Structure formats: C-alpha cells, structure tokens
Amino acid sequence: MALHFTKEEFSNRKKNVLKSMKEQNLDALLMFRQESMYWLTGYDTFGYVFFQTLILDKNANIILLTRAPDLRQAQNTSNIQDIRIWVDKDDSNPTDDLKQILNELNLKNKNIGIEYEAYGMTGRNALRLNKSLDNYCKVEDQSELITKLRVIKSNEELIYVRRAAELADNALDEAWKYAKAGASEAKILAEMQRAVLEGGGDYPANEYIIGSGDNALLCRYQAEKRNLSDTDQLSLEWAGTFKHYHSAMFRTIPIGKADPKHIKMHEACVEALTNCVKTLVPGKTAGEVFDAHAKTFDNLGFNKARMNACGYSLGSTFSPNWMDWPMLYTGNPYVISPGNIFFMHMILMDSDNNLAMNLGETYLVKENGNERLGKQKLDLVTL
C-alpha cells in the first residue's frame, strides 16, 4: 500500500471533516472531487472522469463507489476498506448503486452534503444524482467543506511542497540551459519535465505553458511548437510536482536581445510582486493582495496589460489544472493564514507592442510573514 502520509495524519483529517460535517448538520458527505478523496484517504487515480464518489457518514463509515478498473487502484493507494463497484452497461445508472449504499447507512430523509464543484460531476451526472435523491433526502452543496480544510497545509504536506519547489527550480535550470536562438520549444519542454520526473516528481495537474513569438502572450498551453528566432521572447509557466503537490513558477525570457520595453515591464513585475509579497501576511485578505498588484501596475501605466487576478492557492490537485481555492482577485474576503500556499503571478501582455513579461513564484505564509519557496533569481535573464 503506497500511502504518502502517516496514520495519525489521515486520522486527524478525518476528525476535522467529521467536525465540519457536524457544524453543518450533515449526516453524510458525498465526495466527487479527486482532491478530497486523495487528501482524506490517499486514493490516487484519474478514474474520477467517470462517476465515482466517496461516502463519509457522521458515524465515520467510508465507502467508495467506483468502476472495476479502480478497485485495485483504491486497494493499492488508499486506506479505504469498503469498495463497491458499479457495472458498465448500456443502461447503467450508478446513482441506483449509490442509493443502495445510502439505504444501508440509513440516510433516507437525512441531510447529505454533495461536492457539486468537481470535474467528475458532469451535468449529466448531476442531473441523474438529483433525480435519484429527489424526495429521498435533503441535499445541499458542500463543495468547499473539505477544500477549506485542505487550504492550510500540515507539516507533513509541507515536506512535499518544498520538494516540489526544488523540482521547479531544477526545471528552470534546464530552461535556461536549452533556451537559445534556434532551440525547439519541444526540446525545452522535454528537458524541464525530465528534470522533474528524474527528481522523483510527478506529472503536473495541467500542461506546462510554453510560447514564443506571438504565442508568448498566451496564458494557456496550445499545440504549436516552434523554434526560437534570433531575437525572440519565450514565456514559460510550469510547476514542480511531488506526490501531487505543486509549486509553480512563471518567467518570460528574452532571446538574443531584450526590447527596452521588456526591461521596463520586468521592472514593473518585480515591483508588483514585491508589493504583493508585503501584503501576503496573516490577517490580510486575498483581495488586498490583488489590490497591491493592480495598484502597482496601474500606477506604472500597465492597466491594459495586466490580468484581473494575480494568483491562487496551490496544493495536491489533479487534472485538468493545478489551480486551487482561493484565487487572488479584487474583493475576495478570504483571510490569509499561516500554512497557506500561494502562487503569485505578475502577468503583462502588451498586445499593442506584441510583448509579454511574466514573473511568478510560490510562497508559504508563516506566522510573521511569508517565505518564497523557489530559490532562483528574479532578475531578467536574456539568452
């Protein structure tokens, strides 16, 4: 069994979930988020793309309902003892199997929380689930119950986060080594990912973002790969990943020669990041961190080029993306606390001049401030 945490750690997590359920007057919680299942039991899979749910009732019973391919996956990666299988066929409806389990647990006419905000909870699955539970029990959306517990990292989790940060640093070393005029974006990507995997890391929850030339202004992965020109710009967003815990970074690298505007944009990114770091302290809100970002860029004349969010929490996440709750945007009332992990990205996309500049780092919030987990320099590196 490949459990990545101690029995005491898993026990404490379960106790905290049960406590939150009691506070919300829930008799049971149906988990559909893979992040919740992994955090609570160690269950590690991508089988959540099909109907799959982990049931926890107020008496601490845990039952997993999944498909046959994930039976051994759950047995080998988790501490779940009771695993039920729903059978694939043309007219199969796994919510019928779920209702049988709920009946076993005497949950008819009881209060049940459901994680509706989950990638496996497709519209069709939600409709089938709601129809099955209509007039059976009281249902309420509890998508954030476990997410709010996961957002503060334990000492055991921080070991993995720090290792992920080391792997992210190693990946940047490879990018600097291979990013030069004539180099293939595919080669740069391959070497960055190799550094993470050979260092004992994992695939990230979403693709690394790479773009040069016009594509340097994109904030998402896309399939085109090109060779770098003699004078170019290369944007990279990636994460070191260890036991599914992420530590992300973001850079734009001028190739050949930095445009003078590149230099000014980088200086603005450093100033904005510095002001965000000063605000990312216990007691401040996520909205206040964003406001520090926005005020800096706006005062420097980059209002049109900046984004409407400047980062988000990181943790153990699964495909299709590594972004976690909460996000740093204006007015977000979430209060920053020790144990938070935030990736803060300063993004400038100047469409008028077709120039990009990005600078992003991951931080651990501590009692008296924060710690940048990456150790690489923030200087503008031209290759």
**What top-tier CATH class of the largest domain fits best?**
Alpha Beta
Name the shape in a single word: elongated
Annotated CATH topology of the largest domain: Creatine Amidinohydrolase
CATH homologous superfamily placement of the largest domain? Creatinase/methionine aminopeptidase superfamily
Low-confidence stretches: none
Structural class: alpha+beta
Number of helices: 10
Under the CATH scheme, the architecture of the largest domain is: Alpha-Beta Complex
Oligomer: single chain
Describe the main β-sheet briefly.
8 strands, antiparallel
- Chain-averaged pLDDT: 97
Order of helices and strands: HEHEEHEHEHEHHHEEEHHEEEEE
Q: How many domain modules? A: 2
Helix content: 25-40%
The Rg value, from CA coordinates, equals 23 Å
Strand percent estimate: 15-25%
Write down how many β-strands occur, each being a DSSP E stretch of 2 or more residues: 14
Distance N terminus to C terminus?
46 Å
In short:
This protein is an alpha+beta fold. It has helices spanning 7-23, 34-41, 71-77, 94-104, 123-133, 145-150, 155-178, 185-198, 260-279, 286-299; strands spanning 28-31, 53-57, 62-66, 82-85, 111-114, 138-141, 209-212, 232-242, 245-255, 311-313, 324-327, 341-350, 355-366, 369-372. The N and C termini lie far apart (46 Å).
